[in-house]
User: Fold Adenosylhomocysteinase from Pseudarthrobacter chlorophenolicus.
Amino acid sequence: MTFDYKVADISLAEAGRHQIRLAEHEMPGLMSLREEFGASQPLKGARIAGSLHMTVQTAVLIETLTALGADVRWASCNIFSTQDEAAAAVVVGKGTVEDPQGVPVFAWKGETLEEYWWTAEQILTWPGAETNPELGPNMILDDGGDATMLVHKGAEFEALGAVPAAADDESEEGRVFLEVLRASLQKDPQKWTRVGSRLLGVTEETTTGVHRLYQLAEQGKLLFPAINVNDSVTKSKFDNKYGIRHSLPDGINRATDVLMGGKVAVVCGYGDVGKGAAEAFRGQGSRVIVTEIDPICALQAAMDGYQVATLESVLAEGHIFITTTGNKDVIMAEHMAGMRDKAIVGNIGHFDNEIDMAGLARIPGIKKVEIKPQVHEWVLDEGTDAEKSIIVLSEGRLLNLGNATGHPSFVMSNSFANQTIAQIELFTKAGQPEGEREYEKQVYVLPKILDEKVARLHLDALGAQLTELTKEQAAYLDIDAAGPYKPEHYRY
Ligand code: NAI
Assistant:
């Protein structure tokens, strides 16, 4: 069997396979879904275009999807987040380096923006689909919404008959994105309309991607149903919080090896990710300051014992500044210019627009020194008495995946069990004829009973013993002894 793929170095496959093997042991949710659904093959006929950080944990997800019958093509959703050995191992699969038999992966660490959008196009471009649309992708598994956006924007511009001359925000990213769409429209003027019409649905991993989906649905522009995986409790209250608590310090350590104890860490945003970030710094003995725009989250931070302040008021105080907001323009160039010498600045939100990298590069006389890949020192006022520098991690992209290897397997087993269940839900239920469909072109979350199932799958591995409700207790609480245990409005 031959297939197209592009990874950094296919010979890394063996190293990747060892890591995948160990990760499987730490991913009981995914492994038990393989056991439960391996024989019935609920994803047989699913052709999944996956856009999610190509890490070791994602390799276990991909191989779970194929074990359940799916055909898959995969790209990373960030230019720095691929673990090259994992990508190689997924391509090789059960084959050999000479005769790979796995999954077409298009991902490597350190892609250019042009390469990034090329890989995104590859996962949505299935062999034979140009002449036979039946062979194209019918599901997207997305993280951040770039694959979904490519299809939606492509179809929108095809309907208009042209791609705009410039991106709304005039960013480099936007320029490259439009270039890719212009080229594809020239080659195949109906490509994205065709791809969009064949898609049964998308399952979205993260807060930022979910935000984009709700916007599309509100505007009546969503082309297919979507499941918001992020807001499964066993995703956002675990991955976003406990995952970050692990992978944020991992990224800072691998990048700088700076001692966090005693330092002042400024965490911008106190949502799920910010809560994990603040707790990680506190665990290391840092003094943590939180910035927030939402009074509820600000009050939570204060009650959790953190100082809550504006960024402007603590610029000179902080040693480490981390953005976790999913918002744009949070740390601007003027902020960085006001920080102390060798302050560390990083982002762990999905996109790189939280930190004003373009503005930093425009500061007159500023010099960028590469300490090592994904760690840069920006020197201001060089040669003067005022000389100082700022250390920026992963060029403003999410540092836990740019400087380290992202969240650990166990927490990702929760997220990816939700992803797998969501893929099965949509693939098996979104294709019915109109009138009988359970999923319309809207955004859904998984039923609570499935959320509870994901949690249940992870208890044994931690030796956690669940108390069972008696019949009388269940009747008293007016719930089923088998769950769901909480009403929809419960917040955990
Ligand atoms: P969230 O919505 O729970 O939290 C974001 C918080 O930032 C909110 O409380 C909001 O009020 C606050 N905020 C917004 N603008 C702000 C500003 N200008 N200054 C201070 N605070 C501000 O979102 P969540 O789930 O915490 O996710 C945050 C980002 O992290 C998203 O982009 C998400 O996609 C991403 N993410 C990244 C992961 C990673 O591995 N790096 C893992 C999970 C999520």
Observations:
- Residues 409-429 form the longest helix (21 residues).
- The pocket of NAI is lined by residues 206-208, 236, 239-240, 268-274, 291-294, 297, 324-327, 330, 348-350, 398, 400, 406-407 (CB under 6 Å).
- Residues 319 and 343 are 5 Å apart (CA to CA).
- Residues 240-349+352-396 form a domain with the Rossmann fold fold (CATH 3.40.50.720).
